[in-house]
Amino acid sequence: MAIKNQIKIHVQSLSENVAIARVTAAAFAAQLDFTLNEIEEIKVAVSEAVSNAVIHGYVEQPGEIELIMNLYTDKLEYIIADKGKGIVNVALAREPSYSSDPERMGLGFVFMESFMDELHVSSEVNKGTTVWMVKKIVPTAAH
Amino acid sequence: MKIVTFLKRGVLIVRIEGELDMHVADKFRETIDNALETSGVKYILLNLEAVKFIDSSGLGVILGRYKKINAAGGKVLVARIQPQVMQIFELSGLLKIITCYNSEAEALECL
Asked: What ipTM was predicted for this assembly?
């Protein structure tokens, strides 16, 4: 299916860029009739994916994170890719409460999964991680 | 993020303004822990009225404070959560262990 609109941004792996990424993601979604709750869900999901890249992908070392946003007729697609250290066991990392740090909730992937309609994670050790998420566009009934 | 802490009736009141994500998580944690250490109190009331965004990094700091203070026999209370932040709290399961109140006054009365 043809892409109707696309934005690609590259951000340095810095914690201050997490907010910029999620606000950009929300602005991209705002061209459609999403509810405020749905926009918030997209913000949280993108925030989690970019935070993971900064914290776990690059372990707070310099690096580049790519955020690609695609609009299709029936869905929004968000792709967050890093070239960091990768995830050894993706299935395990996606489980609730999986976290290497007691101060973190291990809810990053749970939020991405709950708030988006589809989530795929591909990762290769020392090559990087790509998170692919979809939010479906549900036609609103005429009032 | 702006964060103000003060004591009222033996409770550390923490008023937070801004977005609670990984960028501010360390400062958020350190501000509360320092205030707890200085005051020696065991009750924290987080006023989230001006918090517009939270993700798992922000929730992690709140959970961490809960674990710490609960182990010391204290309590963490939350007041004035905004609707968009409330849905994130609900999904995280934090509301099962932390009670949310409509106002600071209401929370203080329940202690």
From this structure: 0.93
